[in-house]
Amino acid sequence: MQKTVALVEDDRGLREQLLEVLGTDPEIKCLGVYGSAEEGLKKIPLIKPDVVLMDIQLPGMSGIDCVTELRRVMPSVNIIMVTVYEDSGRIFKALKAGANGYIIKSRLSEDLLQAIREVFKGGAPMSIHIARKVVNYFHSMGPSRTADKDLSAREDQVLTLLASGFIYKEIGEKLNISVETVRSHVEHICEKMHVRNRIEAVAKRHLDGGS
Predict the structure, then answer these.
(1) Distance between CA atoms of 51 and 39, rounded to whole angstroms?
(2) Tell me, what DSSP letter sits at residue 126?
(3) N or C, which end of the chain has less CB nearby within 10 Å?
(4) Global pTM?
(5) What are the chain's domains?
């Protein structure tokens, strides 16, 4: 199944780099490229892409504010932040605004296509060190187990490892199961905890009261 993408990026060189990477996968089609949040907000709802790749630092409205506005008119669209910024403040603001994933521009060739595939499977694609920053933040809040009381023993193991910052491959190796089995467990965890992705599941485990 073809995956459609829209891109919001003001830097011409980076736009060309992103388009070059996207062009290496015949199952991905870019429907539109926009140089500002304002232009993206006008046109993206009309073309209805499956995934929006969003820069943070844009002229005028920021990418984070654009995510907030897009979420209001396109609640089911997948949004991946593609940025040079690695500070925790911007990461959490983007996720709170409704971004599904967060990857770093310096790793585009390694991360971009995988991120698009992962978000289609209900995942929350992030560069590894970004994911570790997120789970470390939730660790600092202290644990709460009320949100995941209905999980099976194996699902609880998977969620515990996710909350410790391990990626799917590492979890599979530790539990002696395949990556696809890990992914299946994560899908069940998200269903039971009523969250969209693994990052929200980790957050809900650590938020007091599970809500």
Answers:
(1) 16
(2) B
(3) N
(4) 0.69
(5) 3-126 (3.40.50.2300), 134-210 (1.10.10.10)
